[in-house]
Amino acid sequence: MLSRRLLRIKVVKALYAHIKSESDNMMTSEKNLLASIDKAYDLYFQMLALPAEIVRYAESRIELNRQKKLPTYEDLNPNTKFVDNAVLRLLANSDSVNDRLAARKLGWSQQPDLIRTLYNQLIESDFYKEYMTRSERSFTDDRLFVENFFRFLQDNEALDTALEELSILWNDDLGFVLAMILRTLSNLRPSHTELKVMPQFKNDDDLAFAKTLFERSLVNYAANLEYVDRFTSNWDVERIVFMDNLILTTAMTELVSFPDIPVKVTLDEFIDISKYYSTPGSSVFINGVLDKMVESLTAEGRIAKSGRGLLDTKNA
Are 307 and 260 in contact (CB under 8 A)? Predict the structure, then answer.
């Protein structure tokens, strides 16, 4: 399922786009937010379909080698461990994956150059060479190989470029999706005949969380920004970037609007988001301001948490 971290990032990006565009249509911006969340779930299936495409390319290479005028022994007796991998076959034949691909018009058929590039990179990797030279292998070995394949895709320039061309909404989603895939694979067993895909959300609360965080952050943006300003008097106002203020006001919304989310979780999440989406020094600034805001909001009775650990900003 899509993580709360990814949902928070989607909300912050949607708020940024709405405010910067000076839009006055919250419903349209919220629809764009939900479309972006749906698209992240599409990427989960798009990536699950990728190894099957590479297997098909590998099979075509094997067949071409067999048809050579003067084939070698290796051409006629190829190592088929990769194309016969039980987990890769399960992914390729998954009705859950293929139905989503068809319904959402997803797939890699228009990316032959990428498939060739990834295949050539794969066969040069150490984990591929080690797997292919094993005398025997088990289902667990097959699964571990596929897990390594998806780890190998992290920070792959060719893949990143292709994904950006396929959908601008997939920017920054790959790491989250690969983590989902690794969790999916970890649950596979030899007896399984169908891949059990993860749901889009853990439960209905996650979708409600994203929508509520977006709506309340937007409606209360001006008031929250005014509140934030009370705690930034010791900072050079001209050096406080827009994204810092946006992260702070969104964090404030979460602090006062969700009694079931521990304070520390909110602080940690938005401080980490600032490390990737704002300036190098933003996390220190946001950490300091949030600490003061929590103290003030708690004294005012605006942070109402119930349950062990929900108010503690030191221990989760």
Answer: yes
Could you tell me the sign of the dihedral formed by the alpha carbons of 278, 32, 202, 211, in that order? positive
Q: Which residues contact 285 (CB under 8 A, 6 or more apart)?
A: 235, 240, 244
CA distances to 218, 263, 300 from 303, in Å = 19, 9, 8
**How far, in Å, CA of 201 to CA of 312, rounded?**
27
Output the pLDDT for position 211.
Answer: 98
Q: Which CATH superfamily is domain 220-299 in?
A: NusB-like (1.10.940.10)
Whether residue 15 contacts residue 214, with contact meaning beta carbons closer than 8 Å, is answered with yes
Spatial distance between the Cα atoms of 297 and 241, rounded to a whole number of angstroms: 23
- In Å, what is the CA distance from 315 to each residue of 82, 148, 167, 247, 310? 46, 34, 39, 22, 9
Helix axes 204-219, 242-257, angle to 10 degrees: 120
Each domain of the chain, given as residue ranges in start order, spans: 4-186, 220-299
Dihedral angle sign, alpha carbons of residues 273, 202, 15, 18: positive
Q: Which helix (H) or strand (E) holds 87?
A: helix 86-92
pLDDT, averaged in runs of 10, over the chain (316 residues): 97 96 94 97 98 97 92 92 97 97 96 98 98 93 98 96 94 95 96 95 95 98 95 68 94 96 96 93 92 96 74 47
Which residue, 240, 218, 219, 222, is CA-closest to 231? 240
Report helix, strand or coil for 82.
coil
Tokens for 120?
């050539």
